[in-house]
Design a protein that fits this description.
By secondary structure, this protein is of the alpha/beta class. It has 12 helices and 10 strands.
Length: 290
């Protein structure tokens, strides 16, 4: 269920509120372009600035619009275990197919604390759970040994690995085998990660080139290495442009330039600098996106 190109979809805003029409249209576009699953309320969806009502509504809209055509993996992670359980239960109640759980940020728990956190969530719901390791944002790393311990839980089914550390990816796959699906959390590592035995990516770039990211995952998973490698290098300038500034500033700016959403963020995120906007425009023009 959880493999291929999985978009960490943006949350469009209009006059300070969630733009439900633009969000629904984006989902329809993704399904038509071959995206394999949708992640609402991830980092790229600005989940940190959504209140509970908005958070649940974005998940609800995604579930209703998708209507079982592809899996919906709801972002429900928090730095409080009780809050994570509360939001994950709500996602399960709403009908999500799985939940994405970022490692508790700011607290800097030990490996034992991380294990107990995820164990508590896994024991509280029946929903399939995807661990999310992103040390650059959370200040904590879920080690391969801890992942292997957590893989013993039947409903902990995958990990989004955004450490960009291929040794760590290799160790997870070696220790866990087929007990857990490993997904890239950085677009530039999608190809090498699948070559190591991973199954796909939870992608930022898929927001603007969904068909291309889906094609890369498909080719790599089918063992068409040369074709996949060529596409990997083709996408690299675009992947880099998505991080000219803090995600999701560049990707939302790109979608605005493409006419798909309004260019609107929530503080503390704000619009791109003029210099970086021009760099982004040049990259998008190179791909024929604007």
């Amino acid at each position: 269920m959880i493999q291929g190109s999985i978009v960490a979809i943006v949350t469009p805003f209009k006059d300070g509120k969630v733009d439900e029409k633009a969000f629904s249209d984006l989902i329809e576009w993704h399904i038509a372009e071959g995206t394999n699953a949708i992640v609402p309320c991830g980092t790229t969806g600005e989940s940190a600035t959504l209140d509970y009502e908005e958070h649940y509504n974005v998940i609800k809209i995604a579930i209703e619009v998708v209507n079982k055509r592809v899996p919906v993996i709801a972002g429900t992670g928090a730095n409080s275990t009780e809050e994570t359980i509360m939001m994950t239960k709500k996602a399960e109640e709403l009908g999500a197919d799985a939940a994405l759980l970022v490692a508790p940020y700011y607290n800097k728990p030990t490996q034992e604390g991380l294990y107990r956190h995820y164990r508590a969530v896994a024991e509280s719901v029946d929903l399939p759970l995807v661990l999310y390791n992103v040390p650059g944002r959370t200040a904590v790393n879920i080690t391969p040994t801890t992942v292997a311990r957590l893989a013993e839980f039947e409903n902990i089914v995958a990990i989004k690995e955004a450490s960009a550390n291929m040794r760590q990816v290799s160790d997870i796959i070696r220790l866990c085998g087929d007990r857990i699906t490993v997904l890239s959390g950085d677009d530039f590592t999608t190809f090498p990660l699948i070559m190591l035995g991973g199954k796909g990516v939870i992608s930022v770039s898929a927001n603007i080139v969904p068909a291309k990211v889906a094609q890369l995952c498909r080719l790599a998973n089918e063992g068409k290495v040369e074709e996949a490698r060529k596409l990997h290098y083709e996408l690299e300038p675009l992947n880099a442009a998505m991080f000219l500034e803090t995600n999701p500033i560049p990707v939302k700016t790109a979608l605005s330039l493409m006419g798909k959403i309004r260019e609107e963020f929530r503080l503390p995120l704000c619009e791109m600098s003029d210099a970086n906007r021009e760099k982004l425009k040049e990259v998008l023009k190179g791909y024929g996106l604007i």
